[in-house]
Design goal:
It is a single chain. It contains 13 helices and 4 strands. Strands 1, 2, 3 and 4 form a 4-stranded antiparallel sheet that branches. Strand 2 and strand 3 form a beta hairpin.
Amino acid sequence: MEPWLIGLIAGAVFLFILFIIFVPIGIWFRAWVSGARIGIGRLIGMRLRRVGVTKLVDAFITGKKAGLDIRIETLETHYMAKGNVGTVIDALISAHSANIVLDIRTAMAIDLAGRDVLNAVKVSVNPKVIETPIVSAVSKDGIELRVRAKITVRANIERLIGGAGEETIIARVGEGVVTTIGSSVKHTDVLENPDSISKKILSKGLDAGTAFEILSVDVADIDVGKNIGSQLQMDQAEADKKIAQARAEEKRALAVANEQEMRAKTQEMQAMVVAAEAEIPKAIAEALRAGKLGVMDYYNMQNVQSDTNMRNSLGGNKNDSKKSKE
């Protein structure tokens, strides 16, 4: 066999292999018999762009079979944007079957926003029940009530993009429970009519700006907790007691300080008196030397002092004898 013929055959085989690899004849034929016509050139382009041809075409065929007005170019764009094409198609089929208005661009936007569009459609058809954690609130009479509520919600497709999630619904309902119980004069009013909590919460429109529509709020459980009012009064009384004790201790310390100051002043005065008395003999001696005081005057003064000391001693003895008799 001629070399050129061998090269021709090898080239033909190579081209045939490339054709099999890049031209998905089987996928094209399956789409054609399913009524989802796709050009062979687009399939080759999808292969070159490394798009999951099998997955994308299967989703396109499913949508067409369900009667959806979709284009393969739109699905390819969503796939290349890292979107979940299969989930979007399933959501569109579910919405179409339930007569829910949902176009493909809205569904793709919801999917690219990170939300489960298929689950949203299911929740829109079959409402979901969300259970709140225990919410503690205190009525005006100081009694604590612990409430657990169940919230029935339905997904709002129109607000699904940019709308708040379940956490916001739970937080707003908890706030409504606290407000309702806190505005009640007596805790027994809430125990007698727990539906007052549901009515007030539903009247506030707490689902505004969220991806859900609140259908009902039901009080699943309500328990009586602590007497917060009495506890607060006890704490206040204890605080007042400590303040009074601190003030009394302050006054006592001030009195002790004043007493110590008075003692210091008394001791100082006594020292001054002693010092002054020590100067008296010097003054008398000076007066005698200067002739201002005579000898007889000095003796008379001594006699007066002796007489005064004797009378003081006699008076002290009488007082001591009276005290001993008593």
